Amino acid sequence: MLPARYETIILYSRNDAFGDGLIRIPALRAARTAFPDSFIVYGTTRSSSLEHVLNRHVDHLVDAINVRTPLMQLVASHRKGKGRLAVVDFRISGRWLIQTWGSLLGRGIAYEANFPAFALSWRPGQKPEARPERNAWRYHRLIERLAGKRLPFDHRLEPTPAARAAARALADGKHAPLIVIAAHGDGGKRMTADQVVAISDSMIADGADLLYVKTPGDGPDMAELAQRAPKLRLVDSGTVEGVDVSDLLLALGEFADLYIGAEGGTAHLMATVMTPMVIVSGGASMARWRPLSNCVDVIESRHASPAGLVANVPAPKIIEAVQRMLATRRRDHPHLPDHAAGLPAQQSWGNDTLNTDLKHAV
């Protein structure tokens, strides 16, 4: 059965922080694959990282991005003539989804909603099905339901050549395991200077090469880290000329043997280049928000510290997890071919693998 043809498809979410935008990219890829001739609009109620910091990765997948625009306003502006219109709603509020379903009912508009069991978008011949646990898979499944077929799931990203060159210079060609730490973040998604210093002292003593990357948000003072951990190499990612912070992290992730940080956008970014990682979770549901990687060790702060905060997790617990991950020296998808000059084959991939379905592997 051929998929239905839609002149316009509106993909809609409430808000995209950095990590939210990253886990929606597989769904956008699937939509462009299934509907190459449709005009695809991505809209949000609030802001979206897909409009700015991640735009390079999605500008070829969508035809327009409309942030801070009500969904019904988008429907009205694209409901023209006899062309068929579809709406894929990534939002999770049952009240909003039911209201939207009622507003679109009887108007000839296909509606796929992120509702339990996809109950708002049953069609004749379809059977009820449970939503996948991980959010990235849920969004992708909505596109599959609209298309009426299974589609490739691909969450990978590639850095720019300039970012790879900068990362290669930072990696410095050393044979010791390269560990990237990023402790800056928003809210409770950040680590303390005490944790970073303890981890770096221990791992450097074990022969590892540690690189601390300052990312956006609050976190340890770089001058304090330089004084307390003189062997820890420090990089302010915002000062690498001509390279965006996310691209630098992507490229460093290709080189690194391990990433350490709090749960959040940077962890999701590292998963797109298959970087093994140890992350400290501040309470987010790992069933829904776990990075898309098999090579991740999650430390739940609610179990690891009396206060249940990322900042209160004892450094020895993090160091134990780091040692476990380094002992395996394993990376997702070791069969992927070499793409970045100078990288081992297991650390990169080529464009010919972009249609590989990776969902089964994570």
Describe this structure in words.
By secondary structure, this protein is α/β, with parallel strands linked by helices. The chain folds into 2 domains: 8-147, Rossmann fold (3-Layer(aba) Sandwich), CATH 3.40.50; 161-361, Rossmann fold (3-Layer(aba) Sandwich), CATH 3.40.50. Helix content is 34%, strand content 15%. It is built from 13 helices and 11 strands. The strands form 2 sheets. Strands 8-7-6-9-10-11 form a 6-stranded parallel beta sheet, with helices on both faces. It has a 5-stranded parallel beta sheet with strand order 3-2-1-4-5, sandwiched between helices. Helix 1 runs parallel beside helix 5, helix 6 (161-171) packs across helix 9 and helix 7 crosses helix 13 (315-328). The radius of gyration is 22 Å and the shape is elongated.
Strand content: 5-15%
Placed side by side, the strands forming the largest sheet appear as 8-7-6-9-10-11
CATH architecture designation of the largest domain: 3-Layer(aba) Sandwich
Overall pLDDT metric: 87
Give a brief rundown of this model.
The chain is α/β, with parallel strands linked by helices and 362 residues long.
List the helices and strands and how they pair.
Elements: E1 8-13, H1 18-34, E2 39-44, H2 55-58, E3 64-66, H3 71-78, E4 85-89, H4 94-104, E5 110-113, H5 135-147, H6 161-171, E6 178-182, H7 193-205, E7 209-214, H8 222-228, E8 233-236, H9 245-255, E9 258-262, H10 265-271, E10 277-281, H11 286-289, E11 296-300, H12 301-304, H13 315-328
Parallel strand pairs: 1-2, 1-4, 2-3, 4-5, 6-7, 6-9, 7-8, 9-10, 10-11
Helix pairs in contact: 1-5, 1-10, 6-9, 7-13, 9-10
